[in-house]
Amino acid sequence: MTTESIALNRFGLGARPDDSPPADPRRWLLSQLDSFDPLPAPWRALPRTPQLAAGWVAHQRALRQTPQAQRSSLLEAWRDSEGATYRGAIGARVASALQTPTPFAERLVHFWANHFAVSVDKRPVISLAGSFEADAIRPHVMGRFEDLLLAAVRHPAMLVYLDQARSTGPDSMAGRRARLRQRNNAGLNENLAREILELHTLGVRSGYTQDDVTEFARALTGWTLPEDGEGDEAPAPFRFAPALHEPGSRRVLGRSYAAGGEDQARAILRDLAAAPATAEHIALKLARHFVADEPPAALVLRLADTFRRSGGDLPSVYRELVQAAETWAPGPGKFKSPWDWSISCLRALGRREMPEQQVANLLNQLGQPVWRPGSPAGYGDTGAAWAAPDALLRRVEVAQRLGAQAGAAVDARALAPKVLPNLGEGTRQAIARSDSPATALALLFASPDFLRR
Question: What separation, in Å, do the N-terminal and C-terminal C-alpha atoms of the chain show?
Fold first, then answer.
């Protein structure tokens, strides 16, 4: 595999037919860290987080104020609205991936959005998932990990998805009132605390205990959605509610944190972001995503060391990754996820956008619906997650459909070396011997060369 191919496919999103192979692949990748546009044109017309969060709160208020018998029409209108918002965000995500002049930076957005996964399986997230990527992930991928962590866990999509918005301290003002009124729906929820420790920062088997989870959950009480009020201006999408917050000091991972309202949880997050285990966890995930399912241990150690020494400065870690010799080692490369494969197919065809419902259906068929992983752990990032026989058969079916749609307009024999500089001789001969342009293109997209990056 050539360095040009690695830059375009392993680091990028797949070559376009009009791309010129970078003369200096490392320099081309590093230049993207400075030229990345956090909010490119496809995203700018979409509603932002404050407006969407305020809309959800207003919808909930309207439901409470509407008699039960009259709620069906209100619910139907809201579902139509949130569905349209979700599809519009999918369209923006795909258009950004197809049009971007900084595909390495765009891939980093996708990586971090999966690291801090939310899912539209939780109903309110349907309208918020796109804004989570636009407002919590994209502005921070070139900054400090601590800032990215804070933006992700405070976003309404995460607060709703992990049931943090209603988490109530047992001895808080709200908790005491709930007991007096014998309301059982108010209580401490540990989901966000657990996933921050297990998935977002330290990683599994890193030494934290159930007591750490519970204490952290108590510190996070009060982190919730905007006020349920009316006004002309959308309120901030995050709110700290003192009445929900569990009073008192906390002890997490052997450190004591004084009582202090919102600042208590922020202090814990700051220490988690700087923890050696977090550096190792992030380093392993980055190396696994860009290099191999089982990345070289020495590379992971260097990335973790850079993370620690830089104070979690993410571009410093990316630079170390790009400069590492292990990153450029020839080999079969990573097996593409359905998202990666779909985007690389469309880029190879020169597409710059795709109807939002069509791409949503495509990714549903391939088994990776946008913003709908099966758990907070996000989608799998190894070949084993995507290389099952039935999944490969679905890709062949899609490749055949793309070939049929392109017809004679695309010459796969000419296209193949442009989008795959490392094209294998077996694939080259199979394409050359094809009985039709459509079959040739399908063979290219379904080939072992194209299935990996």
Answer: 10
Which pLDDT does position 246 carry in this prediction? 97
Beta bridge partners of 452: 335
- Write out residues in the chain with pLDDT < 70, as ranges: 185, 228-233
Is this model's pTM higher than 0.85 or not? yes
SS (H, E, C) 214-261: HHHHHHHCCEECCCCCCCCCCCCCCEECHHHCCCCCEEECCEEECCCC
CA dist., res. 277 & res. 265, Å (int): 19
204-231 pLDDT per residue, tens: 999 999 999 999 999 999 999 988 655 5
Residue 232 is predicted with a pLDDT of 56
Q: What radius of gyration, in Å, describes the C-alpha atoms of the chain?
A: 24
DSSP letters spanning 37-103:
-SS-HHHHTSPPHHHHHHHHHHHHHHHHHS-GGGHHHHHHHHHHHHHHHHHHHHHHHHHHHHH-S-H
The DSSP code for 381 is -
Q: Give the tokens for residue 135.
A: 């407002």
What is the number of H-type helices and E-type strands within the chain?
Answer: 23, 4
Could you tell me which of 211, 221, 217 has the C-alpha nearest to residue 253?
Answer: 211
| 23 C-beta neighbours (distance < 10 Å), count | 8
* DSSP annotation string for 316-332: HHHHHHHH-GGGG--SS
Angle of CA points 131, 347, 386, to nearest 5°: 75
Q: Are 167 and 217 in contact (CB under 8 A)?
A: yes
pLDDT of residue 229: 59
φ, ψ of residue 224 in degrees (nearest 5):
-150, -170
429-438 contacts at long range (C-beta below 8 A, 24 or more positions apart): 437/403, 437/406, 437/407, 437/408, 437/409, 437/410, 437/411, 437/412, 438/400, 438/403, 438/404, 438/406, 438/407, 438/408
Tokens 């709200």, residue located: 174
What span, in angstroms and rounded, lies between the C-alpha atoms of 35 and 188?
A: 43
- Interacting residues of 240 by C-beta distance below 8 A, sequence separation 6+: 222, 223, 224, 261, 262
pLDDT at 441: 97
Q: Are 314 and 144 in contact (CB under 8 A)?
A: yes
